[in-house]
Design brief:
Receptor-associated Protein; mainly alpha; elongated; 326 residues; 3 domains
């Protein structure tokens, strides 16, 4: 099967395969990228085929109308999962970095050599950073210079802060200055940047709440009301009977409304999904600085917006349906 997966992967552009390879590398997933790529493609084809067959029968739609979007969505979910793993690892490393640098500086002040100070700064509470420090320790033990091992560590984590910290450590090692002082200053700088980020997030909390409320609560309520209003107007016009002489004298031609309530509801549901996806991307950009971080908002928003729409629609129909003859 491995050869089959590689053959499937080779059919796709090299740039696309390279992105998947980089994501697997950053996420520390020890699997051949071509096999992983081919595996995902094959099983997404099978999954999209099953969805296309059953949903096509359920909703009386063409197979390809469901198969193609399902294929794109399934592949997109896997790639987004990889990207979120990469971002989570970088975030955890950045959170642990100041404490690790402080601990390494303390070890240096205690008289340890730089390589030993680095190895003893590996603690379980540092999470992914501990694993990276352990890898550096193994390479240094096998004869690799500590500077080169640190550079390779920075290349395995997609974090600019870690890259800058490694550059400062290497420059301190090369210049022969006080590495302990440099590490402490770097740790303070990283911690200060984290505090600034938290203050910025706190300042935009009201905007985040407003966008979330508008997209997930207010929009479905308004669409629930408007969908019922469309039904009322449609029924009113369908029951409206005017004499031929009266109709000919009216400058506006009144004709039967041909849009069905099912079409209106389908349109509103699709619009709400797209609208919430865009709002989630905006929330991710505002709160975490990355659009893809909005995926964590999208699922809760989607679970909220669709039920609210149908609940409001059902409630309005129950309250006013008897009055209007529904």
């Amino acid at each position: 099967m491995a050869h089959f997966y590689r053959a499937i992967a080779s059919l796709f552009p090299k740039s696309l395969r390279k992105k998947v390879t980089q994501a697997l590398f950053y996420a520390n997933i020890d699997i051949e990228s071509h096999r992983f790529f081919g595996f995902v493609i094959v099983f997404s084809l099978l999954g999209a085929g099953v969805l296309g067959f059953f949903l096509g029968l359920l909703f009386n739609r063409l197979f390809w109308l469901i198969f193609l979007p399902s294929l794109i969505i399934l592949n997109g979910i896997v790639y987004l999962w990889l990207i979120l793993l990469v971002d989570k690892k970088a975030r955890l490393v950045e959170e642990s970095l100041p404490d690790a640098l402080k601990l390494m500086a303390s070890n240096l002040r205690a008289g340890m050599t730089p390589d030993k100070a680095l190895l003893l700064s590996s603690r379980p509470e540092f999470g992914p950073l501990k694993d990276e420090i352990d890898i550096v320790g193994k390479k240094v033990t096998l004869g690799r210079s500590i500077g080169a091992a640190l550079v390779e560590m920075a290349e395995r984590v997609r974090s600019k802060r870690l890259g800058r910290a490694v550059e400062l450590i290497n420059s301190g090692l090369e210049s022969g200055g006080s590495l302990a002082v440099l590490l402490e200053a770097t740790a303070d700088n990283v911690r200060e940047q984290s505090l600034i980020d938290k203050k910025i997030k706190a300042g935009i909390t009201m905007y985040v709440i407003f966008i979330f409320s508008a997209a997930s609560i207010i929009s479905p309520v308004l669409f629930g009301l408007s969908s019922f209003l469309v039904e009322v107007i449609q029924k009113t016009f369908s029951n409206l009977e005017l004499p031929t002489t009266a109709v000919s004298s009216i400058p506006i031609q009144i004709s039967k409304v041909s849009i069905s309530p099912t079409f209106i509801i389908s349109f509103i549901v699709i619009f709400l999904i797209i609208n919430n996806f865009m709002a989630a991307m905006l929330l991710g950009l505002m709160s975490k600085g990355k659009q893809r971080a909005g995926i964590s908002y999208f699922v809760p928003m989607l679970l909220l917006v669709i039920p609210i729409f149908f609940l409001v629609r059902y409630a309005i129909r129950g309250l006013l349906g008897g009055l209007l003859g529904f």
